Amino acid sequence: LALADAGLEMYGLTPSCTLAYIEAEGAGERGTIVVDPTLAEEELAHAVLAVALLSTTKAATQVLCTGTLSADALVEGLELAARSCDATLEKLRKILIAALEAQSS
Questions:
Q1: What is the mean pLDDT of each run of 10 residues along the chain (105 residues)?
Q2: Closest Cα to residue 82, out of 4, 16, 13, 5?
Q3: 22 pairs with which residues across the strands?
Q4: pLDDT 10s digits, 61-73
Q5: Which of 84, 83, 46, 40 is nearest to 65 (CA)?
Q6: CA dist., res. 10 & res. 72, Å (int)
Q7: What is the DSSP string of the chain?
Q8: Residue 3: what pLDDT?
Q9: Phi and psi for 45 in degrees, rounded to 5?
């Protein structure tokens, strides 16, 4: 937001999110994926995935994974991260529009 607020020309905004994969306590149970986890949730996780997407093309500008994930879990996480980034992008746009309206009045 700082770059946009400064009036720098950009290709688009780059929303990001982090996912924490927390294993289920019971054998055979499905674990939980937490979006934008707290530090305590990250410490419980067996894997953490951080994703940033360029808003104009949906191209990944960053994908960072610590821990071990199956291919299915990674695909599920990337899809969830894309939806989360879309939601964050809408919030970023509203904040920028409000800031522009405040400057013009």
A1: 75 92 75 95 95 93 94 94 95 88 82
A2: 16
A3: 32
A4: 999 999 999 999 9
A5: 46
A6: 34
A7: -HHHHTT---S----EEEEEEE--SSTT---EEEES--HHHHHH-SEEEEEEE-TTT--EEEEEEEE---HHHHHHHHHHHHHHHHHHHHHHHHHHHHHHHHHH-
A8: 76
A9: -75, 145
